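COURSE: Structural Biology Practicum
ASSIGNMENT: Worksheet 4, Part C
STUDENT ID: 0417
INSTRUCTIONS: Below are two proteins. For each, the amino acid sequence is given first, followed by its structure token string. Answer the questions at the end about the second protein only.

PROTEIN I
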Amino acid sequence: MKIKLYIACCITLSTPVLAQEVPPAQNVFFQNIPQIQPELLLNQPDIDTPNPAPTKENSSLEERINFAIIHKDWLELEKLLGQYRTATNFDPTLYDYGLGALYRHQGRQKEAITLYRQILARQPDLHYPRFDLAMMLYEDKRYAEAKTELETAAPYLAPPLQSLVGQVLASIKKSQEWQPNFNLSYESTDNVNQASDIRELVVGEATFIRSDDSLPQEAHGIRYNVGAAKEKNIMGNHYAYTSIDTEGVNYWDNSDYSELTLQANLGYRHKNIERSWGAVAIAGQNLLGGSQYNQNYGLTLEYNRKISDQWQISGNLSHIQKRYTDDDLASYYDGHANSIAWILLYQPKPRWLVYAGADFMRDDLADQAESSDRQGIRGGMAFSGENISVRSSLRYAQRDFKEDNFFYGEKRKDDEYQFSTTLGHKKLSWQGFTPKLNYEYQKIDSNLPLYERSNSTFFVKVDKYF
């Protein structure tokens, strides 16, 4: 379980609620591109590939093949297997074993698995090839099959490998269980309603004076998130995905803006050593000020592929339906949103990660003046050193609305800027608690002054893993 404690102070010059351009509860699914998780890519252990030692000149071809496999001399192994195919004492088991090891090194996992299954079909009592097969199945995300092969081979393996089998089986078991999460933060903001600070609005020859309630309001409270997710390997490379999540914020001095979101996800994923893809259905209910506010439901298609040891690409395609409880809001904001996004990740060194991507989102709402197209680009980096960790991201988007704005009589066009950075130092950790300094900034420039806003936030985040 992961616990996050935040101490945040928000300094905000923000949005217009007068025209209800953005409803107060902003739990919009699918608006973000795939999440970047550097911890899944950084600090990966290096693969120990020893330099091959010379063999005796009078060694047999079989001995040289075994030596090449043990010492991972793949170029030599490929040459030796070519020679062995025409040998008079050809052993198909040794040949398939060597070729399977070569295929595994080349990333041809499924072909290697097929060869090792052929070996075991001929000789079921070969326990070490069975262990190798189990590890390849594990690498290929076929956990149910790997578990069966590991449990079969374990009693016949040497003690060090039995210990490794225990670790792998524990990893498989943990990966199939519910993964809980719990986040907690203190929040202080001077613009909880995300309103413009313009008091006088001039429309043509008329001047409107906005009430105090429509101007920025302060609020203090606790933001929280409680949930759990489970990914179960059904068979082969097929997975069932389930998650439930409760997220909200409770303001003790401005409860009208307290929010609560209940969300459930159910989906299918196909995962192997090179790529993963899937479809996840999402349903959510939002509450604002203790009353039902809106519902969101839809579907997202996701894709992730490892191009090489250093390159990876991720993307998604999403559709979301929005339904508001209040009839007045529904007449403006009921509708749907479609989005597509991708990210290209590059890991030049084990501790470094950089990425760049683009995204597009189309809102098609009941009020076409509130409907828009948004296209954006973004980039970022992450560094995880022995003591210091840094993460930063930058995003720019252009948003074009489809019809003339009610107040200004012309179409709205926004330029959106976002920047965030996180800095941590492991020597500041205490009892597993690691504080991180965070800064986030958002700015929107608009051709319509009422819709310009900026948010600037500093906060300290403390992580604890269990």
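PROTEIN II
(use this one for the questions)
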Amino acid sequence: MKMNRYILFCLSHILLLSCQGQSKSSNVSKDSIYVNSKMMDQQELMQTSILSKYGKDNGYNPLSYQDFQNRCMEYWGLSLHKEPKDYVLSIGGYTEYTINEWGRFLYTEAENLFYQPEIDGEPTKEDARKMLYDKENGIADKFLAYNKLLFNDNITTLSFFIRNPEYAIDVVFNHDYERNKILTARSIDFSKKTTDYSVYRDNTEKVLFYNNRKRGFRRNLINEIYLSCNKTQETMAPFDDLVYAYFKQFKQLNYPQDVKDKCLVHLLKCLIEYDRNHKDAIIGIEDEKSYQHLSNFMSKDKH
């Protein structure tokens, strides 16, 4: 009987110690989360200060908050808070760029300036500033070029995008910037030089439709792509590739049928114009590009 009581005593004592240990561990975890959260808030505040100063010192003029909201809605269909609230607001799953409502700018890096694992301990504000001002990593130039273009329409940024074709393609095709015809034309030229027109095959939805779904399909960009291609059978290959990529993805794209159909009709109008201007290469209806592509779509979707 005494032995049974002793065993019960030991078991209850072990259980009590276990519960106390879990409680202490829980408290430490909560304290750790609080400290980390506090540190992140401080870093975001310092990063906003560093980037805002760098932008203003180098010609970036922050818009009023209302105008900034309007641009974010135009480019990304992104609805900001009525008043600045967020330092790191995602603009969508296709990019790691974020919106800083307080600074009224786009941050164009995946990691913040305080992410410096090579430094022992927590990086200081001076470390973050050095990271930005280090010309080798290109963070500052990219940050400045994107923001001065997207929010200031500053044409002095064109040289940056022409030197960096991948960013020219990105800002026009992925971020829906259409306010500069020279940049649009150059981004189309760059995109046609990529292997097998992968920009059109891999980014069909981005090329054909706006991020802000209420804006529908990108009529102007489609026209510019067509005009750059419609000279010969060979130069039409990128446009053919775009239409074929649309055919492959047509049923999977999550848009109302009438929106997808309107986009298709516009593509077909371009193809019909091409057929009319190249009658010498057409013997029968099967030779017409418009007929070939329309047949594909009708075979996939009778609606």
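ANSWER KEY EXCERPT:
Q1: Strands lie at 89-90, 98-100, 105-107.
Q2: The first strand starts at residue 89 and ends at 90.
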